[in-house]
């Protein structure tokens, strides 16, 4: 048996190894994300494998763009000489936010020996990783979320769910370091008439709002296009409305991801309207301005907005007189992606 790539399911491998059925395993990107992959499988600890999310951002695209291989989920790739050391002075660290930035910060702080308390206002860890992994073609993101949740338990992080941190709570926490990792929320422009009839991509993906069979996605960036692809794959009739001349034109979208999405759009019949601006949302769908300036009403059951994210209001100024050192990381500092959040957290915490 030869197994490899994203088919290298640890449960299957473990069973196959036990039964002596594997002669060779070929592991690509997953070995970059988790160099200890094989040991985790052989030792029967698949839950400790840091899941490759197949994003290409750090590895293949990183190499194409910079000549260096990195990894979105493994911040040590390309920095192997900078291993996490036990700290000389142990500190009390309080983290606000249980998204990937907060959990990576907690992981690194615990490996350095610090005491860590993590406040998460919702009832679950993961933050925006949860909607990000909602579609079936992005299940690996769910695997990464599970990896971090397991690390919080194994590393004995004091996780407080349903606990919203406020400046008063943080000042009273007697911490040496406060890490703000409070994340971002979808942009929903109030200036657009009828915006309340539209649904944010996050609310749609989390099932907080129903999504009908005929869908308009406003915003043809990477997140909007992935939402469009996911719903088209489910059999929905999908139109992407993008104000710029091209979709997927902002940010450094890996070429192979772009090609996959464009192929998928052609296959599932996703309609793309570029140079087209949302004017208002109405009961029957969306009124848009076409490139020639004329208006058209596009019929739809659901209008989903995916026009970007903004950091939640920062608590940093309110903590100016806090005795603790205050550090801000992740989307709450600057909206990015898994790669930027993990790297941000790792860099901020490894030498506290
Ligand atoms: C739909 C979608 C798809 C995406 N797809 C990808 C992708 O494929 N690849 C990729 O690299 N990136 C993707 N991203 C981006 C990526 O998910 C985010 O950059 C990343 O998850 C942000 O992590 P974070 O920890 O900074 O913030 P968040 O995930 O926003 O987490 C912040 C957490 O803080 C909590 N919180 C806020 N305030 C408080 C408080 N006062 N007290 C306690 N808790 C608080 C929140 O409840 C939340 O859980 C996607 C994002 C979205 C929305």
Account of the protein in words:
The chain has three domains: 2-66, no CATH class; 92-185 and 310-349, NAD(P)-binding Rossmann-like Domain (Rossmann fold), CATH 3.40.50; 188-307, FAD/NAD(P)-binding domain (3-Layer(bba) Sandwich). The chain starts with a strand and ends with a helix. By secondary structure, it is an alpha/beta fold. The chain has helices spanning 10-18, 29-33, 37-42, 60-66, 100-111, 129-132, 139-154, 167-171, 201-205, 222-233, 255-268, 338-349, and strands spanning 2-4, 24-26, 92-96, 115-119, 158-160, 177-180, 184-186, 199-200, 214-218, 237-241, 271-273, 277-282, 285-289, 295-299, 302-305, 309-311, 325-328. Strand 12 (277-282) and strand 13 form a beta hairpin. The strands form five sheets. A five-stranded parallel beta sheet has the order 5-4-3-6-17, with helices on one face. Strands 8-15-9-10-11 form a five-stranded parallel beta sheet. It has twelve helices and 17 strands. The protein is globular. Flavin-adenine dinucleotide (FAD) is lined by residues 55, 72, 96-102, 119-122, 127-129, 131-132, 164-165, 181-184, 201-202, 205, 223, 312, 330-332, 336-339, 341.
């Amino acid at each position: 048996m030869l197994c490899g790539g994203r088919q290298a399911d640890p449960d299957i491998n473990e069973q196959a190894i036990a039964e002596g059925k594997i002669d060779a395993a070929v592991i690509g990107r997953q070995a970059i994300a988790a160099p200890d992959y094989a040991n985790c499988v052989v030792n029967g600890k698949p839950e400790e494998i840091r899941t490759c999310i197949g994003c290409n951002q750090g590895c293949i695209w990183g190499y194409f763009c910079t000549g260096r291989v990195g990894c979105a989920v493994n911040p040590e790739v390309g920095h192997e000489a900078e291993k996490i050391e036990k700290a000389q002075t142990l500190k009390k660290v309080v983290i606000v936010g249980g998204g990937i930035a907060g959990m990576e910060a907690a992981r690194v702080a615990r490996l350095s020996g610090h005491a860590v308390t993590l406040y998460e206002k919702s009832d679950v860890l993961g933050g925006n990783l949860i909607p990000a992994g909602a579609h079936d073609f992005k299940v690996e993101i769910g695997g990464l979320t599970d990896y971090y949740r397991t690390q919080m338990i194994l590393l004995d992080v004091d996780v407080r769910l349903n606990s919203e941190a406020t400046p008063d709570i943080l000042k009273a926490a007697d911490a040496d370091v406060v890490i703000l990792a409070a994340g971002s929320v979808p942009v929903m422009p109030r200036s657009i008439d009828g915006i309340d009839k539209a649904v944010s991509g996050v609310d749609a993906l989390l099932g907080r709002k129903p999504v009908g069979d005929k869908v308009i996605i406003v915003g043809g960036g990477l997140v909007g296009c992935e939402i469009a692809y996911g719903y088209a794959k489910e059999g929905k009739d999908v139109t992407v409305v993008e104000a710029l001349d091209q979709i997927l034109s902002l940010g450094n979208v890996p070429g192979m991801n772009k090609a996959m999405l464009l192929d998928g759009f052609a296959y599932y019949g996703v309609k793309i309207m570029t140079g087209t601006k949302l004017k208002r949302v109405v009961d029957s769908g969306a009124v848009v301005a076409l490139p020639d300036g004329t208006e058209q009403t596009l019929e739809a059951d659901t209008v989903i907005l995916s026009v970007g994210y903004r950091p939640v209001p920062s608590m940093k100024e309110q903590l100016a007189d806090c005795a603790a050192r205050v550090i801000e990381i992740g989307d709450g500092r600057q909206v990015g992606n898994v790669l930027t959040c993990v790297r941000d957290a790792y860099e901020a915490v490894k030498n506290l």
